[in-house]
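REVIEWER CHECKLIST
Item 1: Sequence provided? yes
Item 2: Single chain? yes
Item 3: Sequence as submitted:
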Amino acid sequence: MITPMRSVFFVATLCGVTVLPLAGAQAPVAKAVEPTLKVAYVAGMESPPAVVRRAAPVYPQDLRAKGVQGTALVDARIDSMGRVVSVELVKATRPEFGERALEAARAWTFQPAMAQGKAIGSRVRLPFDFVMPEVAAMERR
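Item 4: Structure as written out by the authors:
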């Protein structure tokens, strides 16, 4: 686990990723076009990790058949090469969604965060939405 060396955190949208404060100074919030990832700021971080490859979770077949929708939130630790080296489930509306989100998160790859011109490890929080297209289309009407 990477722990910030100081309690300075900020909010900024960069490379499609929003860096959010865990504590400390307040800054304006900027919205990204796609769902944002929460990134733990590390002292000296010049740029947060950027998603290179996303893997979509597999919708649990039994829940799809029942029309059950939900979400899962996963914390992932990224190494200095941009690989996901560990994942932890923060919360999920159903255990099945949590399992599938963890599987998907392990397959993501990133451009690593940078500090002082060098790639560094970082932590991100990945949101996963399990929404059936048919139901989502009906909800938008």
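Item 5: Key structural point noted by reviewer: Residues 1-34 have pLDDT under 50 and may be disordered.
Item 6: Recommendation: ____
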